[in-house]
Design a protein that fits this description.
The complex is a heterodimer of chains A (about 475) and B (about 500).
Chain A lengths: L3 H6 L1 H8 L13 H5 L4 H14 L4 H14 L3 H14 L10 H28 L2 H18 L2 H10 L7 H18 L2 H15 L5 H18 L3 H9 L16 H4 L3 H15 L2 H9 L2 H9 L1 H11 L3 H10 L1 H5 L8 H17 L4 E3 H8 L7 H11 L5 E3 L4 E3 L5 H31 L40
Antiparallel strand pairs in A: 1-3, 2-3
Helix pairs in contact in A: 4-5, 4-6, 5-6, 7-8, 8-9, 9-10, 10-11, 11-12, 12-13, 12-15, 13-15, 15-17, 15-18, 15-21, 16-18, 17-18, 18-19, 19-21
Chain B lengths: L2 H8 L8 H16 L3 H9 L3 H4 L6 H13 L23 H12 L9 H17 L4 H14 L8 H13 L6 H4 L42 H18 L2 H12 L9 H18 L11 H10 L1 H11 L3 H10 L1 H7 L2 H9 L1 H12 E5 H8 L3 H14 L4 E5 L6 E5 L12 H30 L2 H19 L1 H22 L1
Antiparallel strand pairs in B: 1-3, 2-3
Helix pairs in contact in B: 5-6, 5-7, 6-8, 7-8, 7-9, 8-9, 9-11, 11-12, 11-13, 12-13, 13-15, 13-18, 15-16
Classes of the chains: A mainly alpha (about 475), B mainly alpha (about 500).
Chain lengths: ~475, ~500
């Protein structure tokens, strides 16, 4: 049996470390089996792959599960990636060997299926029955989606558009496109489909069922695009009923994309990163819908409460304890650094607000345990970025809030404004005078047409060359 | 004494006279002296005491004309000597005629001299040329500047003499001499001729100096666009030479806002390159594009000065090795553009920019730490810092920490404290001075506006506008025109298709 230490030394992780990739060594708080059973289909595979290629501890288990899933599925590419990863991590694991027979068989089946569906679609097209064409495209799209040909799948779903007969059809199609987009991580296009779905959904009968999904996905999308404030807003209005909705667009969103727990975590973190204490209390903790989500992830609720009661270092510690878990989350992984960084600098800023000056020592005590480098460098960086309005006294070891002498500042501003005005007036006067005196640079292409200067004698030749001799139009 | 000499000596117009009388007087004199040939003139000047007898303040015109005639007849080539040999000894700096000219230029009567503008200007140009040929350009600077400001105390009508003076300044590298003139706000350009009537008399009391400095008076030649640009560009270079980067930047802005129909010229390009560097030297970052500049022209210029903008970007990041590499890479470009000196100044001033950044981040910093950051030895650092503080470049002071006994640089967050501190009175004074300047500018703008209102173009457009308004009122006419335009458009289209 290969142990975690061996896994860490495996060529796969060594290479990843060397190329600056992210490798997690700590044991996360979740149990892999019970964690992964909440997910299904492609997202399950993606999540397993991420864990398998990131966490040294869970790598083997995750990759084995991934290979098993791929063996059952129709996506040959996925199977090959999973086996290749496993064979690199644990060269002796039998599951890591590619079963060529299986691959060949799968390819054959897939090809036959694709051909059959294309042929069927052609038949429908000849018959000109809208509904059949729509369904034919839908089948084809779903088939391509399961075989991992996402671009083809997207195209097939796109083709459904012309054959949609009612609002429900359209929302259905958009939902499929959205799922493909999420898989491709094309957040911009997912967002635009979501906006369309939101407006089309208004007309559809099952609006109440669509809405929570659209809101949750918009939240996800905004978060992935780095817009945490928008993301938090969307998650906050996602109805808790999300968890019990029936499939929309024949997709089990709660399993294939986001669980309720995910919404709690994403929403909570985005809110922490973008809202101030007042807003957090009002819009998050006292929000009846979202409170239900928070019940599912009590540590997030605790972190938010800690932040609200100004216990910033405790809040950061709380979040830090779950860093490993979140790094192994397929959607949080790419944005976690930014998310945590934003929360952290917000904590520092909030912490500093009531003080006129704080010793660096105290700052270190409050924040060092959860930070990466020296607190001082971090503060310098924040000051330079303009996040933190303060200055550092290196001699006394103090962080000092800016003292403003507002009377003086107003006077200075007045002087500045007056000078700027004077300068502008000077330039305008010059321009006015030059125009009045006909001192203008004429383009060499222009024919001396427009209301021009009084006289041009003695004009310099440096600038225009052929001021008068511009080429005349051929037809004139 | 000859007729000529007595005529010259007798002429000293009384400033108390009515303008029309004065005018008549001077014109009569002018007609009289025109009768004398230059031979006679030279003869009586050479015969002895005429030059001595003419008082520069009382007989300004006579002295001017005498000197002018002598200059015309000196050497082989008169007013336009091309080499050292063509300048006769008497005209060399500190020689007799030179000194006489200098006396004249520093004390002439600014009213009567207006009637002999061409001679006045050409005499100035002549001594400028002489100084330049003899490689003593600095000798002519003060006489010329005094003459310009004596003729027009505001110095605000840009003449060709201004440009000549600035060229000599560049030649002599005596940049400080240019400052008094550069401080004058250019408020107008010499028109072709002054207005008619009583106010049009050269001797009259004109509100603005462009009333008598006209092309017709000969006090200036016709100003061209390039002259204006050259004056400001050279002026900016003088400020750059003096290390006054803010002022230089302001003058370069004057070049960049040249009115243009969407195109730029070489002087603007040169100005923009220097503008970027001057701004960078002043504040450590790229200056903003002047708001009133023509957008298309600026785009053209900017695309041709990418290297300079790139340089300021690197400077902004305060990355010395990259800055050096960037400078190294563009070596031939900087020297071709004649900007190598300025680019080097960027490196020289690098520690100052670093201090600006530190000032934003730190309230105080031990000198030990600073010497590492600025890469300077302890003593050198202290010297450097105290110079900067003394020059007012950074608002900081060097102190000794009570706790650690270290030497410490203390930054002040604004100018209410520290060595650069300004009292409220000072601020108020500054504000009042600024307001006064703005007020006089407003006055000049009003005058410029008035001038525009009198131009042919303005009146024509105004006439058209009024006609349109009248047409719109009558209704029918307006309908017709719109129909015509439409029909024309149709016709053209039909032809085009065929």
């Amino acid at each position: 049996m290969t142990s975690a230490v061996d896994v860490e030394d495996s060529p796969f992780f060594q290479e990843k470390l060397a190329s600056g990739g992210l490798v997690v060594r700590d044991l996360p708080k979740f149990d892999l089996d019970s964690y992964i059973q909440h997910y299904d289909d492609r997202t399950r595979f993606d999540r397993l792959m991420l864990i398998g290629t990131t966490s040294t501890v869970l790598s083997l288990d995750a990759l084995r599960l991934a290979v098993q899933q791929a063996e059952r599925g129709k996506d040959v590419e996925a199977y090959l990636t999973a086996t290749s990863a496993l064979s690199q991590v644990a060269p002796n694991d039998p599951a890591g060997q590619v079963d060529q027979k299986l691959v060949d068989h799968k390819l054959k089946v897939i090809k036959a299926e694709s051909e059959r569906l294309e042929k069927e679609l052609k038949g429908y097209r000849n018959n000109l029955i809208k509904e059949s064409i729509r369904m034919g495209n839908e089948d084809l799209g779903r088939h391509y989606y399961s075989t991992g040909e996402l671009a083809e799948s997207w195209k097939a779903y796109q083709r459904m558009r012309d054959y949609c007969t009612n609002a429900n059809n359209i929302v259905d199609m958009l939902f499929r496109l959205i799922l493909v987009g999420i898989q491709q991580k094309q957040w911009q296009s997912v967002m635009s489909q979501l906006i369309k779905a939101n407006s089309s959904g208004q007309k559809s009968d099952s609006r109440t069922e669509h809405e929570p999904i659209i809101k949750a996905l918009m939240g996800l999308c905004s978060m992935e695009m780095g817009n945490f404030r928008q993301a938090a807003k969307e998650f906050m209005v996602t109805k808790f009923a999300y968890g019990n909705l029936e499939n929309q667009g024949q997709i089990a969103w709660q399993k294939e994309v986001l669980t309720q727990n995910d919404i709690a975590v994403y929403g909570g973190l985005c809110a922490l990163a973008s809202m101030d204490r007042e807003e957090l209390r009002e819009k998050v903790l006292n929000n009846p819908e979202f409170r239900q989500y928070l019940e599912l992830e009590p540590h997030i609720r605790r972190a938010i409460s800690l932040f609200c009661s100004s216990k910033y270092s405790a809040c950061l510690e709380q979040l830090d304890a779950y860093r490993t878990d979140y790094l192994l989350d397929v959607y949080l992984n790419p944005v976690l650094r930014m998310l945590y960084g934003t929360i952290r600098s917000k904590c520092i800023v909030q912490y500093f607000i009531p003080f006129e000056c704080v010793t660096l020592e105290e700052m270190t005590n409050a924040f060092q345990s959860t930070g990466e480098g020296k607190i001082e460098t971090e503060l310098v960086e924040m000051i330079e970025k303009g996040v933190l309005k303060a200055r550092i006294d290196l001699v006394e070891g103090l962080l000092i809030a800016p003292k403003t002498n507002s009377r003086h500042a107003v006077q200075e501003d007045a002087i500045k404004a007056a000078k700027a005005y004077e300068n502008t007036l000077r330039l305008r006067l010059l321009q006015l005078n030059m125009k009045a005196a006909g001192l203008e640079i004429k383009s060499s292409k222009q024919q001396g047409g427009t209301a021009s200067a009084p006289s041009w004698e003695g004009e310099d030749s440096e600038m225009g060359g052929t001021r008068r001799g511009g080429r005349r139009g051929i037809f004139s | 004494m000859s007729d000529l000499a007595s005529t010259l000596l007798a002429f000293s117009p009384d400033p108390q006279l009515e303008p029309s009388e004065y005018d008549k007087n001077v014109k009569k004199f002018s007609a009289t002296v025109k009768k004398f040939s230059s031979r006679e003139w030279v003869k009586s000047a050479e015969s002895g005491s005429l030059l001595e007898a003419l008082d520069p303040a009382l007989n300004s015109v006579s002295l001017l004309l005498t000197l002018y005639t002598l200059a015309q007849n000196q050497g082989d080539s008169g007013l336009r000597p091309r080499s050292v040999n063509q300048v006769s000894d008497a005209w060399r700096p500190r020689a007799v005629l030179w000194n006489k000219t200098e006396q004249l230029l520093s004390s002439f009567d600014p009213i009567s001299i207006r009637y002999f503008g061409q001679q006045w200007r050409e005499l100035i140009e002549f001594i400028g040329l002489v100084a330049s040929i003899l490689r003593q350009p600095a000798m002519a600077l003060i006489p010329i500047r005094t003459a310009i400001l004596r003729l027009d105390p505001s110095g605000g009508t840009l003449t060709t003499t201004h440009v000549v003076f600035m060229q000599l300044c560049m030649e002599s590298t005596a940049y400080a001499q240019a400052v008094p003139l550069l401080d004058c706000i250019i408020h107008s350009f010499p028109p072709n001729a002054s207005q008619g009537g009583e106010q049009g008399l050269l001797c009259a009391d004109h509100g603005l100096s462009n009333g008598y400095i006209t092309v017709k008076s000969g006090l200036s030649e016709k100003i061209r666009t390039a002259d204006v640009q050259e004056y400001f560009l050279l002026g900016a270079m003088a400020f750059l030479g003096l290390g006054k980067y803010d002022e230089a930047q302001a003058l370069l802005e004057h070049v960049l806002v040249t009115p243009t129909s969407n195109t730029a010229n070489g002087l603007m390009l040169e100005a923009y390159k220097k503008y970027v560097l001057a701004g960078a030297l002043a504040s450590g970052q790229r200056p903003p594009i002047p708001k009133t500049a023509n957008g298309n022209a600026m785009r053209t210029i900017r695309s041709a000065s990418k290297a300079y903008e790139q340089l300021t970007e690197v400077l902004h990041d305060l990355n010395l090795p990259r800055l050096l590499a960037e400078i190294e890479a563009g070596l031939s470009l900087w020297s071709e553009d004649g900007n190598f000196g300025l680019v080097q100044k960027l490196v020289e001033n690098y520690p100052r920019f670093l201090l600006y950044k530190l000032q934003r981040t730190y309230a105080s910093i031990p000198l030990d730490e600073l010497s590492g950051l600025l890469n300077k030895g302890d003593e050198e650092l202290e010297m450097y810092l105290s110079t900067l503080i003394k020059e007012g470049q950074v608002n900081a002071s060097i102190e000794r920490s009570i706790k650690t006994q270290q030497r410490v640089l203390k930054f002040y967050s604004d100018e209410s404290m520290g060595p650069k501190a300004k009292s409220e009175q000072q601020q108020y004074k500054e504000l009042v001075a600024c307001a006064t300047r703005t007020e006089s500018l407003t006055e000049q703008t009003r005058a410029a506006d008035h001038r525009i209102n009198l131009t042919k173009e303005f009146i024509e457009v105004e006439k058209k506008n009024r006609m349109k308004a009248a047409q719109a009122a009558s209704g029918e006419e307006a309908m017709d025109t719109s129909w015509d335009v439409h029909k024309d458009g149709m016709d053209e289209d039909v032809m085009g298709d065929a």
